[in-house]
Amino acid sequence: MTRLTPAIIRLRDDDNVVVALKQLAPGDDAVGTPVQAEVPMGHKLATAAIAQGDAIRKYGQIIGFASQPIAVGEHVHVHNCAYRADFQRETAPCVDARPTEFVAPADRATFQGYVRADGRVGTRNYIGVLTSVNCSATVARAVAAHFTPDRLAAYPNVDGVVSFAHATGCGMAGSGDGYNILQRTQAGYATHPNFAGALMIGLGCEVAQIGFLMDMFGLAEGPGFQRMTIQGMGGTRKTIDEGIRRIEAMLPTANAISRQTVSAEHLSLALQCGGSDGYSGITANPALGAAADKLIRHGGTAILAETSEIYGAEHLLTRRAQSPAVAEKLLERIRWWEDYTARNHGSMDNNPSPGNKAGGLTTILEKSLGAAAKGGTTNLTGVYEYGERVTVPGFAFMDSPGYDPVSITGQVASGANVICFTTGRGSAYGCKPVPSLKLASNTAMYERMTDDMDMNCGVVISEGVSVQDMGDMIFEQVLATASGERSKSEDLGLGDNEFLPWIVGAVM
Fold it and tell me: What is the 3-state secondary structure of 285-310?
């Protein structure tokens, strides 16, 4: 990354575009020739003449193709840069895989966490009220709403009682992708280490039967996991009353749990981005990648997701796969997505969003190359289905849509106990039962939305902080948050409405 002038930055020597660090006006001399039209902050301008049909390069990679001739100093964006579906990438499985230099166990970073009976470690201590079907959503919310801060004051070690209602659970096939995704997600939440206990409430006649879920994932009723149905309890009021009674019985045990010092190897970090801009791939995403690398060297896990937003950059991940089988599994998910969008009359280039484009991102290739930087540089150790438990430490990829709440719901179900969420346009996301740290890609947005942003990665540009130093700061903040320091979204009370399992398949 080279700052050519105070106004522009070049990311790789072989790029034929640079990024504007401030708004450029017509006549400004940024690349040796006057700018012909306004170029907004975070947008691209050409450093060489680009013929129609030729590749446009940023990050040393192809981000699109010129849809018309582009002159030196011209603004490069949706009007002259296009995605091409036949664009070929060299996947080259495993060629960049390298041994990871792990920190010795005795020297690993630590945090203060809640050690559960199965050996996993929580970063928060909630009780969850889950729903097997949307028909029980109101009852679950009523049970959780009973446990106000005043009622929980006697249980200071309990972070809260939270309901997780969703929009499905019936009117669906009892097998196949949609059913399996929902059941994996529900099981992942029911057994999540950030829960001291969980109560699952159903209607009784739904497709997603609680008993089937328990059999499929080996769940058993006990003090920490309870189930009930509205039909079995005799109606709404009786179910709410019984649900409150059962949560009250869980509270003393949940409150008796205290934090203790544990290794960072017990952290599973969800890597997420939303509302990205032209700075995301320059500041926040690579800095988060550096933090992920450091966590992995300390024995932990980092989970990248959003398959539709690594499309066009998947070859950078397959090259780091630790085995050909891992690389092939990622490519299989890419092929599934190509088929999925085609049969729904869509395109993989329906991304970036309008906000992304306003922030300077032009094609899905450009967005994906920046988004993939969150995954750091270590080997790809596994590729997982949506909501599937991540079982191998290191850098993992979980299949999901790019829609943030859906993607993060899957990452939490996979075991993530901390979230880092990078954003350039701004975000108000929160996630119970897992704390979510918001990382701003630019200083202007950080200052505008300071109540929502936890860290300002914009200092990589505005103050010359190195990406590695910013990654170290993120790593330290992850440890502090895992130990109980509250995130901005927690202070704002966010996270009660963001549980959103991926819905795949026909609604019957």
Answer: HHHHHHHHHHHHHCCCEEEECCHHHC
Task: Give which of 74, 116, 368 is closest to 224, Cα–Cα.
Answer: 116
Per the CB < 8 A criterion, the answer to whether 208 and 182 are in contact is: yes
The pair of structure tokens assigned to 191 is 């057994």
pTM of the shown model? 0.97
Sheet strands (E) in 214-354: 225-229, 260-263, 268-273, 301-304
Residue 405: CB atoms within 10 A of its CB come to 17
User: What is the β-pairing status of strands 268-273 and 418-423?
Assistant: parallel
* Number of CB atoms found within 10 A of residue 300's CB: 24
The DSSP bridge pattern shows strands 2-5 and 75-76 to be unpaired
Residue 330 CA to residue 337 CA, distance in Å, equals 11
Distance CA 325, CA 318 (A): 10
Residue 471 is encoded by which pair of tokens? 């990654």
Torsion of CA 332, 335, 340, 346, to 10 degrees: 150
Q: Which residues are 182's β-sheet partners?
A: none
Find out whether 109 and 479 touch, Cβ atoms under 8 Å.
yes
**Residue 204's closest CA among 235, 232, 164?**
232
- The answer to whether the beta carbons of residues 399 and 386 sit under 8 Å apart is yes
Residue 426's region, left for phi above 0, alpha for psi from -120 to 50, else beta, is left
Per-residue pLDDT 10s for the chain (508 aa) are 776 678 899 999 999 999 999 999 998 888 888 888 899 999 999 999 999 999 999 999 999 999 999 999 999 999 999 998 888 889 999 999 999 999 999 999 999 999 999 999 999 999 999 999 999 999 999 999 999 999 999 999 999 999 999 999 999 999 999 999 999 999 999 999 999 999 999 999 999 999 999 999 999 999 999 999 999 999 999 999 999 999 999 999 999 999 999 999 999 999 999 999 999 999 999 999 999 999 999 999 999 999 999 999 999 999 999 999 999 999 999 999 999 999 999 888 777 889 999 999 999 999 999 999 999 999 999 999 999 999 999 999 999 999 999 999 999 999 999 999 999 999 999 999 999 999 999 999 999 999 999 999 999 999 999 999 999 999 999 999 999 999 999 999 999 999 999 999 988 8
CA–CA separation, 508 and 500 (whole Å): 19
| Structure-block tokens of residue 288 | 């988060």
SS3 label, residue 420? strand
Q: What are the beta bridge partners of residue 364?
A: none
DSSP secondary structure code for residue 389 in this structure = P
Query: What are the helix (H) ranges across 359-484?
Result: 364-371, 404-413, 443-448, 459-462, 467-482
**Within a 13 Å sphere around the CA of 310, how many CA atoms are in the beta-carbon half?**
27
| Contacts with 11 (C-beta within 8 Å, 6 or more apart), sequence order | 1, 2, 18, 19, 58, 59, 60, 282
Q: Report which secondary-structure segment, H or E, holds 160.
A: strand 160-164
